[in-house]
Amino acid sequence: MKIGVLFFGVLKELVGRPDDTVVLPEGARVRELLLYYGREAPRFEAMVPSLAISVNQQYAGVDRTLHEGDEVGLLPPVSGGFEEGGEVPGEVRLVRERIAAEAVIARLKRPEDGAAVIFDGVVRDNTRGRRTLYLDYEAYEAMAVKQMESLAVEAQERFAVRGVSIVHRLGRLQIGETSVLIVVAAAHRGPAFEACRWIIDTLKKTVPIWKKEYFADGAVWADGEAFPEEIRCPGGTAGEQPASK
Q: Which residue, 57, 142, 143, 158, has most beta carbons within 10 Å?
């Protein structure tokens, strides 16, 4: 059976391409994919314990059985759809143009809101003492939107806020531009503050978006925060048969 494979962030450079097709025997599991690419790119194997895996845009474990036509995403730590039946006032978008913060805020606020808490993530001009020239953001876009929508739903349920907007920029960003905007509207400031902090902290760990930082003396993929243990790929792929092209 044929399985599509997508690579993101630094993984694209380790294997030398953004996507691939692998032929696996019927009943094969994700674990066999990891073994194959570990043999093809030794540095890939060292990254396996920090990866997360998606199958058809849903997080999955290494023992997930694969089927003909499945799409597997191999996801390095991220840089930081609505669940069925879920609906939250607001907007969730990935954009390639400048984020118009005032317009996003104005669309969300309502007369019944006593608070609108805003997180405006901005591109700074340095990282660990190195002067930053610009950033490039990329995403597993279909999955990223679904994960962001799920965060909006969960935030409403967990903190009892009225509305949530999450807008994340992709592509090239210059110093001072907004990379991510989160707005939370609620009757009271306490839940709004708590929800906003929870959303950005969780987004940075679980939503498949990566950034590459460009400096005067080179470029690197930014080190991401570790995936939560429940979605992180466990180490060890020994004992499986390799996949074939």
A: 143
One domain for residues 133 and 22: no
Q: Give pLDDT tens digits for 177-195.
A: 999 999 999 999 999 999 9
CB 179 within 8 A of CB 209: no
Cα–Cα dist 228/40, whole Å: 27
Q: How far apart are CA 45 and CA 165, in angstroms?
A: 37
Summary mean pLDDT of the chain: 86
* H or E element at residue 35: helix 30-40
The helices-and-strands tally (H runs, E runs) of the chain is 6, 14
Strand ranges, E, within the chain: 2-7, 19-23, 52-55, 58-60, 71-75, 92-95, 115-122, 126-127, 130-139, 163-169, 171-174, 178-186, 209-215, 218-221
Asked if residue 181 is part of any domain, the answer here is: yes
Query: For residue 161, what are the domain limits?
Result: 92-221
- Find out whether 81 and 51 touch, Cβ atoms under 8 Å: no
Tell me which amino acid residue 130 is.
Answer: R
How do residues 120-153 score in pLDDT, each as one tens digit? 999 999 988 899 999 999 999 989 999 999 999 9
* C-beta atoms surrounding 201 within 10 Å: 12
Half-sphere exposure of 154 (CA within 13 A, CB side): 13
What CATH number does residue 153 fall under? 3.90.1170.40
Backbone angles phi, psi at 123, to 5 degrees: -70, 120
User: Hey, which bits of 13-148 come out as E strands?
Assistant: 19-23, 52-55, 58-60, 71-75, 92-95, 115-122, 126-127, 130-139
- The tally of domains found in the chain comes to 2
- CATH code of residue 43: 3.10.20.30
